[in-house]
Amino acid sequence: MSLSEITAQIRAAEKRYDRAPGSVELIAVSKVQPNERVQDVLEQGHTVFGENRVQEAAGKWPEFKDQFKDISVHLIGPLQTNKARQAFDLFDVIHSLDRPKLAQTFARLAQETGACPDLFVQVNTGEEEQKAGIHPKDADAFVAECRRLDLPIKGLMCIPPVDEEASLHFALLAKIANRNGLSGLSMGMSGDFEKAISFGATHVRVGSAIFGQRAYELG
Ligand SMILES: *Cc1c(COP(=O)(O)O)cnc(C)c1O
């Protein structure tokens, strides 16, 4: 696979599922990939990237952002509260707002800095113990709380359980977003982004299908 093939598949899926042309954004997930591969995708003109660790992103994106124009970097992995300030500086969008403490910290940082990355609330649609995210039954109250804190909530994000049919999770996330008046849906990865688009994904997070297999998996 390549960037152009994935982009073509996204455009075709938009058409097939009656989605507006260009309504699905491709986040190229560059975590763990060697810089040459990332550079190659940057040189093809792609501007939207995803990382799941603050430290790793800090090691490559400030330089790439100097080198290439209009890059936006999305945090798609869990964020410790003590790294929130660094994340504010590094990322244009954060998809892993997953607890009240982090929302309060973001609100304080937004006040202090006068700016805030766009935010997605991560929902643990599978209610998995080891996975981050707000449980579906608590999502409405959490979104309301974030709005009360004036946080720029753009949508919801989920990572379906590996051993379950992803469609159920995509549908659930879309339902929760809809009843909360949220238009953004961050869902779908290399193996299921077309399916996610059929359920309304606005942001698909695709790594290995663009860059190739990662040399190792993050825990
Ligand atoms: C790694 C990762 C992806 C991309 O996974 P691929 O299967 O390589 O496309 C998407 N979302 C999150 C949260 C990830 O950590």
What can you see in these coordinates?
With 219 residues, the protein is of the alpha/beta class. It has a single domain (3-211), classed as Alanine racemase (TIM Barrel, Alpha-Beta Barrel), CATH 3.20.20. It contains nine helices and eight strands. It has helices spanning 3-16, 35-43, 54-67, 84-90, 100-113, 136-148, 166-179, 193-198, 208-211, and strands at 25-29, 48-51, 72-75, 93-97, 118-122, 153-157, 184-186, 203-206. It is globular and about 40 Å long. The protein starts with a helix and ends in an 8-residue tail after the last helix. The structure holds pyridoxal-5'-phosphate. Pyridoxal-5'-phosphate binds next to β8 and α9.
The 3D shape can be described as globular
Q: Give the integer mean of the pLDDT values.
A: 96
Integer tally of domains: 1
Number of helices: 9
Biggest pleated-sheet summary: 8 strands, parallel
Which structural category do the helix and sheet elements fall into? alpha/beta
Briefly summarize what is shown.
The protein is 43% helix and 16% strand. It is of the alpha/beta class and 219 residues long.
Provide key terms for this protein.
single chain, 219 residues, alpha/beta, TIM Barrel, 8-stranded parallel beta sheet, 8 strands
